[in-house]
Specification:
Blueprint (H helix, E strand, L loop, with lengths): L1 H31 L25 E10 L9 E3 L2 E5 L4 E6 L5 E6 L9 E3 L2 E5 L4 E6 L5 E6 L18 E3 L2 E6 L3 E6 L5 E6 L9 E3 L2 E5 L4 E6 L5 E6 L22 E3 L2 E5 L4 E6 L5 E6 L10 E3 L2 E5 L5 E6 L5 E6 L9 E3 L2 E5 L4 E6 L5 E6 L9 E3 L2 E5 L4 E8 L8 E6 L11 H13 L3 E3 L4 H7 L6 E6 L6 H4 L7 H7 L3 E5 L6 E4 L4 E5 L3 H6 L8 H4 L5 E3 L1 H6 L17 E6 L4 E6 L8 E5 L6 H12 L4
Length: 624
């Protein structure tokens, strides 16, 4: 009897010790990850896209970039000093979060466009073949693999993402293109249950109150018991009733994840609607019509504010979660497929132009923007002051956030444009493109009538202002006068900023009364802007040479250049790019004021959508 008692006591003690170890392991894991979101897509099971961390107003620098072999549309996941992400090159990567160096890579044999989930010692993801992998997160060795059956037919394209796994309480939940959502045992990958859907599932499952939420490509939203896989309710979006063949477009599919807070589930679809649904009953609370603009982006929700992006509508919007009332709209230069995140009072919205747009959560005003690469379909994540995101140039990027002090000065931004009144030297199509881009970015449009007033009004060190010249033309009213006495020079000398694109307008000589163009006069640049050219002939043109950005140019935002002519002695300007002969072809002439002011000479090329983003960054450098 005594031996049995001792044995039972030892067993109880052992069980208690194992429980304590398990508790301590999970406590340590939670403490180690307390400053970041949970290591899965959208930062947690409810897919709210909110990450803990200090508020920020800018991206300070690209901390590192890791180049994969193809586009990165998977969203990186941070866990315990490592970053995990897949690539369309068919590999899944583990990187050091500090340096960006590769720790290991796993060949998944197909594009990896799902976002990973990490649980204890494992990392989970799916590939384009509908294979779910569990790897050891330290070594990258495969623990198990489950084939979730081939995709159902889907002909409408723009089908970039795979469902991202969600791990909770020892169960892995994931959607499949085979038309089902699966619950699998985390330990060995054995299927616990599967729920059949009406179409492919690209939506990443969300979890709240023991209920799994997701959509499918037929336009249905489902709520399923997480333990049993039994359906609780089904919601039909407008897309569920649409026949795509009548429109020649897909207005049915739900690809976004359902975000859940306070018993409200929100999701949008390719039907161009955005919905608020009662998470318990499945009844619609409110909806918004985006006029056919796809909602691929998943919503972010903090407190009562929810934020969403859209495709052809080209905006990021915020709504009141409970009433559906619009709070603000932020226009973007191009489409938004990436899902925004919220950190503190900052929305980080990654747009298809390769920029991170940092917005004020309450007002929707732009705090700053930062260009880090090419087209972006990956959604960002955040940990310890760093944004992690992929893009279509194949990079996984780590972007260091921070707070740039504000000068307190009002900021005035304008673009000047006029019609081809002189002939010959203006290309209307190019100048129209520049004009339209900057007007869409919120720049005031100036004409020959309003440009002089703008220069006079903002000729003060108390104002930060810039004028981008979409038209390579200086009208007589801003250039007339004796040396250094013109309105243009006065504006520059008092801290204004002018950006010219292509042939410097200071070279052009006109007969204003006859409205005739008289050709190039290189020596005139000295009178107008204080930059000397040695000859008034071909020797100052000098020829077209390739150029390379300087460190200052990179700091201003210049990442690439085109061949340019009429380079100047770099001693009299601040070079932004030098040609192969050491001449400054991209440059700024500063007139003794703070950095970021003065006369900026840039060059353009025919395909400018990518380059105009850089021009805007250069134009706004130093305005704060």
């Amino acid at each position: 009897m005594r031996n049995n008692f001792v044995l039972k006591s030892q067993i109880k003690a052992l069980i208690g010790l194992l429980f304590l170890c398990f508790f301590c392991e999970n406590l340590a894991y939670a403490q180690q990850n307390s400053s970041i979101g949970l290591p899965l897509f959208r930062g947690g099971p409810a897919k709210n896209g909110v990450y803990p961390g200090a508020d920020f107003n800018s991206i300070k620098a690209t901390k590192w970039q890791f180049k994969t072999g193809a586009a990165v549309r998977s969203s990186p996941t941070f866990d315990q000093g490592k970053v995990y992400a897949g690539s369309s090159d068919g590999f899944f990567y583990c990187l050091d979060a500090t340096s960006g160096k590769k720790i290991w890579a796993f060949n998944a044999a197909a594009a990896v466009q799902s976002s990973p989930a990490v649980s204890k010692d494992k990392v989970f993801f799916t590939n384009k073949k509908n294979q779910l992998f569990a790897l050891h997160k330290i070594t990258g060795q495969k623990i198990w693999q489950v084939d979730l059956k081939p995709d159902l037919p889907y002909a409408w394209g723009f089908d970039y993402y795979q469902s991202s796994p969600l791990v909770n309480a020892g169960v892995v939940y994931v959607g499949s293109g085979s038309g089902a959502v699966y619950a699998l045992n985390e330990l060995d990958g054995k299927i616990k249950w599967s729920f059949p859907t009406a179409s492919l599932v690209r939506s990443s499952p969300s979890l709240a109150q023991n209920t799994l939420y997701f959509g499918d490509l037929s336009g249905k939203v489902y709520a399923v018991d997480a333990q049993t896989g039994k359906k609780k309710w089904q919601f039909a979006t407008v897309g569920d009733t649409v026949n795509n063949l009548n429109f020649g477009n897909d207005f049915k599919a739900i690809m976004a994840s359902v975000a859940i807070k306070d018993n409200i589930a929100v999701v949008g679809g390719r039907d161009g609607y955005f919905y608020g649904i009662n998470a318990t009953s499945g009844q619609e609370i409110w909806r918004h019509n985006f006029d056919g603009s796809w909602v691929i982006s998943s919503a972010a929700i903090k407190d009562s504010v929810l934020v969403i992006g859209t495709s052809d509508g080209r905006f990021v919007k915020a709504y009141n979660l409970y009433t559906g009332k619009e709070k603000w709209t932020y226009k973007t230069p191009t489409i938004v497929w990436s899902s925004p995140i919220i950190v503190g009072n900052t929305v980080a919205a990654v747009v298809n132009d390769g920029f991170v747009h940092c917005l004020d959560l309450q007002k929707g005003t732009e705090k700053s923007r930062y260009r880090f690469g090419d087209r972006v379909f990956s959604s960002p994540s955040f940990a310890d002051g760093v944004i992690y995101v992929g893009n279509d140039d194949g990079n996984i990027s780590a972007l260091q956030t921070g707070n740039k002090p504000s000068s307190g000065r009002p900021i005035k931004k304008a673009v000047f444009w006029t019609s081809d009144v002189m002939g010959k030297y203006l290309r209307a199509g190019l100048s129209n493109l520049i004009r339209d881009y900057f007007v869409a970015e919120g720049y005031e449009l100036l004409s020959e009538e309003t440009l002089p007033t703008f220069l006079k009004t903002n000729s003060s060190s108390d104002v930060s202002s810039v004028v981008v010249f979409a038209t390579g033309y200086f009208q007589e009213e801003i250039t007339k006068g004796t040396y250094q006495k013109s309105l243009l020079y006065d504006y520059l000398s008092k801290g204004g900023k002018v950006v010219v694109l292509g042939t410097n307008p200071a070279f052009h000589r006109f007969d204003y009364s006859a409205k005739e163009y008289k050709g190039l006069d290189y020596l005139q640049a000295d009178t107008l802007i204080g930059v000397k050219y040695p000859f008034n002939d071909l020797r100052s043109h000098y020829g077209l040479y390739g150029s390379v950005p300087t460190e200052t140019g990179k700091k201003w935002g210049l990442s690439q250049t085109v061949s340019a002519f009429a380079g100047v002695d770099p001693a009299q300007v601040t070079p932004l790019a030098l040609d192969e002969n050491g001449k400054a072809v991209y440059w700024v002439k500063n007139y003794g004021h703070r950095e970021g002011t003065g006369f900026v000479q840039l060059w353009m090329q025919a395909n400018m959508l990518h380059q105009l983003g850089e021009v805007r960054k250069i134009a706004e450098y130093g305005l704060e």
